[in-house]
Amino acid sequence: MRGPDHDLERLAGAAGVAVHWRDAMGREQVVAPEVLRTLLTELGFDVETPAGVADCLERLEHESGQGLPALKTASPGAPVELPWAGSEAELPFQLSFEDGGRMSGIARRGASGALVLPGVDRPGYHTLQLGQAACTLAVAPDRCFAIDDALHGAPARLWSLGVQLYGLRRDAAASIAAGSSGFGDFTALRLLAEQAAARGASAIAVSPVHAMFSADPGRYSPYAPSSRLFLNVLYADPAALFGPQALAAVSARGLGDELSRLAGLSLVDWPAAGRAKLAVLRALFDDFPRNAPPRMHEDFQAFEREGGEPLRSHARFEAIHAWRVEQTRDRSGWRQWPAAFRSPASPEVARFAAQHEHEVRFHVFLQWLAARGLAEVQAAARRAGMPVGLISDLAVGTDPSGSHAWARQEEVLARLSPGAPPDLFNPRGQAWGLTAFSPRALAANGYRAFIELLRASLAHAGGVRIDHALGLSRMWLVPEGASPDEGAYVRYPFQDMMRLIALESWRHRAIVIGENLGTVPEGFNEQIARAGMLGMDVLWFNREGTWPGAPFRAPGGWSRQALATTTTHDLPTVAGWWQGTDIRWRAELGLLAEGRGIEAEQAERGQDRARLWEDLGRAGTVGAGDPFPPEAPVTAVLDFVAQTPAPLLVVPLEDMLGLQEQPNLPGTVDTHPNWRRRMPLPVESLFEEPGAAGRAALLARTRGRA
Question: Among 168, 209, 216, 210, which residue's Cα sits nearest to residue 190?
Fold first, then answer.
């Protein structure tokens, strides 16, 4: 006899929630019924009663095959199967291509019961009319735009810097004039790109530059943004557009001493630096457009028009949030606002926007400044000879109290956080406190939100790194307030999303990198490789075993379908790994695995150091008889990774400079200075440092552009 849990599990499976899964040790796990009910409720199903579960099952079965989806993806030339509930053996169709022209024909019933269209060779978003129904047919190239394509077919072995943008310094006087002395900005990024290009670099992989909360600069994790559709306005350099007026704004607000103080700090003081920068930007806006040339004001108006409703909605959110902070000191976000303000379409929001038009336009102005600044970075990188230029970083989700979750409430799962189940590196699991797209809403809305997101990420870049790309296939979702191990994997429309990525990749002529670290679904790496998406191979994980002292994979054995790198922002730098800096931090903060002491960790690291030194010698990056060094052999390690056949090597700036501290320590918030560390030298003189100069010269010899 079937029980209620049987139907619940059937519904979960039909809705894409995995009831059974294997953990990092290969053991089969079963999701508890109460977790299934929570996830299914958030996905839009009524599962309070057995009758509700049965009704949802019937509805799902009825939905499948009933009619055209809002958007159907297809490969060039491949027959297109379309669900159709009618009894017609064939139907006439008409296809209107997005760039003009039409194609007519007959769709015929196939063996599977679907209506089949003949293949379409022309990539793009086309409009299909079938009988009385219509949908978008997105025909995508078979693979993403690749590095070889950027090099017009030449074989690729390029190198790139990996940069935490906030950590860049500029010459003190220049940074004060821009109001950016406490952290990096887009001008600092441009200067670094030009210098790196002169030394043979082909790209700059930059940390996320997504929009944060301007009224609350204390929220600064680049991976917990307010919106991924817009930019972090603090990175705008007003001096790049306004010249001396920016310095005048600094003087008018009496900020010179404060900006000088911020310039000398080794860590970013986000609240103070954010307030100072916004004061400069406010002064410039208050004089705009009265003191702006007509062409500048016309450009601003064009930006405002092109941004449309998404830009207006984000600006309204920012204005309301700032007003709330000023009036009530409540920084919590829209879910704690009065009910009348929780919907962007409410009359109260419209009334507020009309009454505070100047404030709303201020936030449009900030986005304009930021967008123009970022566009100039990419243009300068390409002018300097980089075939790729900027590689943007697309965070996996947004803060549930932010602008995007407010504006797109029907498309995101604000009460289910992406994360990861317990594994060898995070035995407690992870819940990142972010939003995720609803897979059902994505499909129902023709993937509008996903396409919009890809275009925002590629607007001013020659590539994109997709954070936690495993989520394109399945996402570990954890109910709000639950422990990370009380989640489940939810299936996403992988094939459709990969095709859309390929289509947008070619339209923007941009490479795509998928961060595929963690518990990887079976076959995932092979699938993204076939689709032309580069994976990531990290030195610390690229070994021939998991035991202490296991050999590091020889350079020739690394993948040609992944970029190569020494480390990531969440892992120790080469110097930090060699000295055990990360172990000391984790021991001090109680982050070592249960039952593990610092002595055991240090002993294992000693074995690993000895093995790495031996493998460096085997690869020829150190001499066979060279003595074991107390200091990290950073240059030799970079040479080791540079020898791999990977088409792209990413060298974190921390390793270029031989720094010990890593940008972020997972599992911490305030106890480690995450996302605050600044470079010890200004960008104008980074490559004058002997270690960086020598390493750049090495990379230019081994991987520099022809």
Answer: 168
pLDDT band at 2 (very low <50, low <70, confident <90, very high): very low
Strands 562-565, 535-538: pairing is parallel
Q: What is the 3-state secondary structure (H, E, C) of 83-105?
A: CCCCCCCEEEEEEECCCCCEEEE
Extract the tokens encoding 387: 């075939």
The packing angle between helices 598-619 and 634-642, to 10°, is 60
What is the per-residue pLDDT across 596-636, written as a single tens digit (0 to 9) for each? 899 999 999 999 999 999 999 999 999 988 999 999 999 99
- Tokens 């972090």 identify what position? 232
First to last CA, the chain: 71
Tokens describing residue 297: 């004001």
Contacting residues for 643 by C-beta, under 8 A, at least 6 apart:
555, 556, 619, 621, 702
Closest CA to 68 of 125, 140, 124, 137: 137
115-132 burial, b for 16+ CB within 10 Å, e for fewer? bbbeebeebebbebbbee
Helix 33-42 vs helix 4-15: crossing angle, to nearest 10:
50
The CA distance from 537 to 563, in Å, is 6
Residue 536 phi/psi, 5-degree rounding, is -130, 125
DSSP state at residue 118: P
Q: What does the pLDDT look like over 692-704, one tens digit per residue?
A: 999 999 999 999 7
Going by C-alpha positions, the residue among 555, 580, 576, 571 that lies closest to residue 666 is 571
Residue 466 Cα to chain centre, angstroms: 5
> For residue 230, which amino acid is it?
F
Share in percent of the chain as helix, strand, coil (round to 5): 45, 15, 40
Closest by Cα among 291, 220, 237, 336 to 670: 220
| Calpha distance 430→419 (Å, rounded) | 5
Angle at 528 between CA 386 and CA 63, to 5 degrees: 125
Q: Can you give the length of the chain in residues? A: 706
pTM: 0.96
**Rounded CA gap, 568 and 515, in Å?**
10
Q: At what angle do helices 357-383 and 186-198 cross, to 10 degrees?
A: 10
With a CB cutoff of 8 Å and minimum separation 6, the contacts of 1 are none
